[in-house]
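Homework help board

Subject: predicted structure for assignment chain

Our instructor gave us this sequence and asked us to write out the predicted structure in token form, then describe one feature. I got the tokens but I'm not sure how to describe them. Can anyone check?
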Amino acid sequence: MLELADIQQAAERVRGQVLDTPCVESRTLSQLTGTQLFLKMENLQFTASFKERGACNKLAQLTDQEKARGVIAMSAGNHAQGVAYHAERLGIPATIVMPSFTPGVKVARTRGFGARVILHGDSLEAAYQHARTLAEAQNLVFVHPYDDLAIMAGQGTLALEMLAAQPELDTLVVPVGGGGLISGIATAAKALRPGIRVIGVQTQRFPAMVNAVQGTRHAQGGNTIAEGIAVGAPGAHCLEVIRQRVDDLLLVDEGDIEQAIVLLLEIEKTLAEGAGAAALAALLRHGERFAGRKVGMVLSGGNIDPQLLAQIIGRGLVRSGRLIRIVISARDVPGSLARITALVAEAGANVDEVHHQRAFTLLAAQNVEIEMVLQTRGHEHVQELLQRLRGAGLEVRLATA
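My token output:
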């Protein structure tokens, strides 16, 4: 079983090799969540993820012979970058097996650290099995992404820093995939502050740890924007620690995570990937469980594909009422569109897109359906806009899908 001494020794090994990231209060997010909320900014690590900690601790303990043989790891991205970066720094040859769905930005950065990258399989399990096969065939040291005591101890150094920076924290909220991060955090936190609560968060599409610990049978699988915690089975070492030292595990959905990413970007001006935003997603969805508490939230990583981020931002604008789509039925005569756009401008909205539909409509001939995408200030402004258009005699509806 992992113990506090393992984590303290890991802290000595990684000191100066990984960043002691800020643990800062967010007043605005505190107001939104009804807590006093502190963010542990692991997205500021050189590889933009906490995974560096475990990788550094593991590689630092290899013998000279093991270092010469080289290491191999399986990862959807963050563990890959952590292993590749510290292997390069320590002069260790590294091979990384990544699932074929891994975001391109993570593949490129991993290769940029000098690692040999192999894309294999359409699941983490398939990539894992291929990495194990290569490790045996090529006599490489396998560096597990979470089910390894050295990895778990390295991740736990994060908790030492959080509690040193904010000793009064009474709750820690941590994203959970295979369980390496929360195992290390819970071990350190419970040893130093026995009364502290440690809460894990999984996505509803990959609730493997929740099922294992709570005995539930939630369905599993599908695409998720939190690919960093899309793990099919918990680590055996991690599971035992979590059963004994983690107080609760919560589930969040894709919409919760999207909202959390947008809020972190807009309010804190900091970039979180899906897994990195999972803890805030839990605070937003399960607010009653955290109300009035002093919460430390682990923002575990910030590696996200730019195209996915653009989609999430757009959907966030729609959710907040700042980007809307309306459909107006009007006579197809000269000046009709000019009149409508003038009304939109008078209402303080901005036109993003305009589309005329003449053929694919049930309207009478000589009528036209005008679809407009508009930038607005929020839900209240949207209602003011619709009222102005209808007051001018126009037939208008808000398109929600």
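Reply (TA_rk): Your tokens look well-formed. For the description, you could write something like this. The chain has a mean pLDDT of 94. That's the kind of observation they're looking for.
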